[in-house]
Write a structure and sequence with these properties.
alpha+beta, two-stranded antiparallel sheet, 11 helices, 6 strands, globular
C-alpha cells in the first residue's frame, strides 16, 4: 500500500463547487458561536454532506509538509479542500509523530490550530475544552445516516467501526441499541478532534447498499464530544491513562533533547538519565503503570521522573542549547498559559 508520504495530496473539489461557509438565512441574527441563525424559523439544519474524506485517495504531501506545518487542514478533513498539494496545512490522518509534535507545541489549540475554550458548549459540539482531554465522541443520528435502513445492532456497530477506524487508532467502540447511539474512543485526542469534523453530517450507507443513490435524502451523523463517564472505575482508568500518556511524552522529550550544534548534549543527558533512573524507558514505564488492577501507585514514579526532567532542563538553560522551535526549557511544554 502506497504511503501518503510518497505522493502529492489530491485536489478534493473545485473552488467553484465550494458552498458558502454561512448557512442560508433562516433568522434575523447570525450566531457565530453556533454557526446558525436565530430569531427566526431554523428549519431542518441537519443534512448529508455532499463532500466526504477518502483517506487513502486524498492523503498526500502538501506545501505544509515542506514548511514544517503542525496543523491539519479542516477542509481536507471534511473532504472539500480545493488546494491539494498547494495547501499550507497537512493532508493526512494524524499519526504518532504528528501527535508528539502537537503536544510539544500547545495544549490550547486543536489539531486544526483552532483555539479551544475553557468549557464545552452546552450541546457538547464545537472545538472542545483545554481543561481536560477528551478522546471519546458521541455518535447520534444513526437512523438518519442509514436512511432508515434496517440493520442488526452488530451490523451498525461494525459500520461505525469501519468508518471511524480509518481516521486513527481506536481504543473501544460501543453501540447502545436502546438509545440508538454510539461512542467511539480513540487512542489519541488529536484523532478524535479530526474524526469529529470528518464524520459530522456523513452517511453510514455503503456503495453496495441499494439506498446509496438516495443517501443525500438522509440527515447524516451527529458527532459531538461525549460527556465524562461518572463511573468511579472509569474515572480511575482515565486518570491512569492520562498519567501514562504524560510519562510517555516526558520520556520522549528527554530522549530527543538535541541542539542545533549536534548530539553531544543529548548523549550526555541520556547517559545521566540512565544512571539516575535506568527504568525511564517507554517500555518500562508501561510495565510500571499498566497493571492498574493491582492498585499500583504511580505518583512516586511520576515525581521522580519529573525531577530528572527538571534537572536536565536546568542544565540546558545554563549551557543555553537550542531546543528545536520550542524556544525555551523542556518544562515549558507542560504549561499552556503562555501559549
Amino acid at each position: 500500500m502506497t504511503s501518503w508520504r510518497d505522493k502529492s495530496a489530491k485536489v478534493q473539489v473545485k473552488e467553484s463547487e465550494l458552498p458558502s461557509s454561512i448557512p442560508a438565512q433562516t433568522g434575523l441574527t447570525f450566531n457565530i458561536w453556533y454557526n446558525k441563525w436565530s430569531q427566526g424559523f431554523a428549519g431542518n439544519t441537519r443534512f448529508v454532506s455532499p463532500f466526504a474524506l477518502q483517506p487513502q485517495l486524498h492523503s498526500g504531501k502538501t506545501r505544509g509538509d515542506n514548511d514544517g506545518q503542525l496543523f491539519f487542514c479542516l477542509f481536507f478533513a471534511k473532504g472539500m479542500c480545493c488546494l491539494g498539494p498547494k495547501c499550507e496545512y497537512l493532508h493526512h490522518i494524524p499519526d504518532e509523530e504528528d501527535i508528539g509534535k502537537l503536544a510539544l507545541r500547545t495544549e490550547v489549540l486543536d489539531c486544526f490550530g483552532r483555539e479551544k475554550f475553557a468549557d464545552y458548549r452546552e450541546d457538547m459540539g464545537g472545538i472542545g475544552s483545554f481543561r481536560k482531554k477528551n478522546k471519546t465522541l458521541y455518535v447520534g443520528g444513526i437512523d438518519g445516516a442509514l436512511n432508515s435502513k434496517h440493520l442488526k445492532p452488530a451490523q451498525i456497530e461494525s459500520r461505525i467501526r469501519f468508518v471511524f477506524s480509518r481516521l486513527g487508532d481506536i481504543d473501544r467502540i460501543r453501540y447502545v441499541e436502546s438509545k440508538n447511539c454510539g461512542f467511539v474512543k480513540f487512542k489519541y485526542q488529536a484523532n478524535a478532534e479530526f474524526a469529529k469534523e470528518a464524520m459530522s453530517n456523513q452517511t453510514l450507507l455503503l456503495p453496495s447498499d441499494k439506498e446509496w443513490d438516495d443517501r443525500r435524502e438522509g440527515t447524516g451523523l451527529l458527532v459531538k464530544w461525549a460527556n465524562e463517564d461518572p463511573d468511579p472505575a472509569a474515572q480511575k482508568r482515565l486518570q491512569e491513562e492520562l498519567k501514562l500518556e504524560s510519562l510517555n511524552m516526558m520520556v520522549h522529550l528527554i530522549n530527543n533533547n538535541t541542539n542545533s550544534a549536534g548530539t553531544e548534549v543529548n548523549n550526555k543527558n541520556n547517559e545521566r538519565l540512565d544512571r539516575t533512573f535506568p527504568e525511564a524507558s517507554v517500555d518500562n514505564v508501561k510495565k510500571r503503570l499498566l497493571p492498574l488492577d493491582n492498585g499500583m501507585e504511580s505518583d512516586d514514579f511520576i515525581e521522580k521522573l519529573t525531577k530528572v526532567k527538571k534537572n536536565i532542563s536546568r542544565e540546558n538553560i545554563s549551557s543555553k542549547p537550542s531546543v528545536g522551535k520550542l524556544g525555551g526549557p523542556l518544562l515549558d511544554y507542560l504549561s499552556s498559559d503562555e501559549d
